[in-house]
Design goal:
The protein is α+β, with helices and mostly antiparallel strands. It is 71% helix and 9% strand. The chain has 13 helices and 5 strands. Strands 1-2-3-5-4 form a 5-stranded mixed sheet. Helix 4 packs parallel to helix 6 and helix 5 packs antiparallel against helix 6. It is rod-shaped, with a radius of gyration of 43 Å.
Length: 382
């Protein structure tokens, strides 16, 4: 169907080509009939010419078809109808055969022209449909791009809000609690003679101290100030030490010396990836250990978090690979990595064999250039 449509469309573009094609089909039909003449003789002189008429009617149009019919009739009359090689009036039976050929050819030409028009209309509708599909595809691609940009903006706003909340908790609530602790200490000194009251005040002071520590921990978890002040290495070491103490999981960090600083967005993304992976290990894997490895080159940063826990079943791996109904944490990690132009891979050799989460993030060229300058300066220093 595709070849026929392409041939019809190609012939319809040039009228000279249509006439030439019709003439060629007529000549071929007459040649085949001449080759069969020793077998057929002067019987059925027109039957072998109908395919040429049908071909011309379907592919070449009305004008070339009429020319083909006339040439077929004249050629058959001259070559195959008695008297041979003469255009004088034939016998009555041969004349009736010629009229029958003209009548049947007229029907074939009418049907062929109707088919050509329907095919042209279908071809036009198909072209319009393809344009519409292409337009819808472009709109869908633009919508997906806008959605990705919106997701990245939401993640950035989330990190900014966490940073603001952590600062507010530390600066306002923490200072208020410190002042309250000093007041309670003063009250405790004034009423030491009242043992019961002093004991209650001491308990209250202990509660305030615990509350202050909890708020400081929450503030650090929302956005550790070490991440902005001292960099990724200090923030990760602080978090992993606290995680190991709270979860009783032996967590270690492998972080190269001379790593350098990255952009705030990149350091935040690496910290959140490690944080989310360790949280998943604590909640789901049952692993007694966890290892976080950070490495980099001039153009990329690699993050790898490994555990020795339950691992992933083939069904769960297929679900994660197909981006199906996975958890919010994995979707969040994928969005962070995607917004920064990186890639995320989750590997597991099966149930009981642990899981490895690997992420690759590109380093912006400006940071790579500055790192290269620092390295060169350091190497030239005596």
């Amino acid at each position: 169907m595709g070849v026929v449509g392409s041939l019809s469309a190609g012939l319809s573009k040039n009228i000279s080509t249509r006439y030439a094609t019709a003439l060629g089909a007529t000549a071929l039909a007459l040649l085949i009939r001449w080759a069969l003449n020793p077998v057929l003789g002067d019987s059925v002189p027109y039957v072998m010419l109908f395919p040429a008429v049908a071909f011309s009617a379907y592919f070449c149009g009305v004008g070339p078809s009429i020319v083909a019919v006339i040439l077929c009739l004249a050629g058959a009359r001259y070559m195959f109808v008695s008297p041979i090689h003469s255009l004088r009036n034939p016998e009555l039976a041969q004349s009736i055969g010629g009229l029958a050929f003209l009548f049947a050819s007229g029907i074939i030409v009418s049907i062929g022209e109707l088919s050509r028009r329907k095919t042209g209309a279908l071809r036009l509708a198909q072209g319009e449909l393809e344009k519409l599909v292409e337009q819808r595809t472009l709109e869908l691609r633009e919508a997906n791009q806008n959605l990705g940009q919106l997701t990245g903006r939401l993640l950035q706003l989330q990190d900014d809000e966490r940073r603001r909340m952590a600062r507010e908790l530390h600066d306002s609530v923490g200072q208020t609690l410190a002042a309250l602790a000093m007041n309670l200490s003063a009250v405790s000194a004034d009423i030491e003679r009242l043992t019961k009251t002093a004991s209650t005040v001491a308990d209250s002071a202990a509660l305030v101290k615990d509350m202050s520590g909890d708020i400081r921990t929450i503030s650090y978890l929302l956005h550790p100030p070490l991440l902005d002040e001292a960099g990724l290495s200090s923030a990760l070491r602080w978090y992993i030490e606290g995680f190991a103490e709270r979860s009783k999981i032996k967590a270690t960090l492998e972080f190269p010396d001379g790593f350098g600083r990255l952009s705030r967005e990149l350091e935040t993304a690496i910290f959140r990836l490690a944080q989310e992976c360790l949280t998943n290990i604590h909640r789901h894997s049952g692993s007694p250990m966890a290892t976080v490895r950070i490495s980099r080159s001039a153009t990329e940063v690699w993050i790898e978090v490994e555990d020795k826990g339950k691992g992933l079943s083939p069904e769960k791996k297929a679900e994660i690979a197909s981006s199906g109904t996975v958890g919010v944490g994995i979707r969040g990690m994928r969005e962070r990595v995607s917004q920064l132009g990186g890639s995320l891979e989750i590997c597991s050799d099966g149930i009981g064999k642990g899981t490895v989460v690997m992420a690759r993030l590109p380093v912006p060229r400006s940071i790579s250039s500055s790192l290269g300058c620092e390295t060169a300066s350091a190497s030239n220093t005596p």
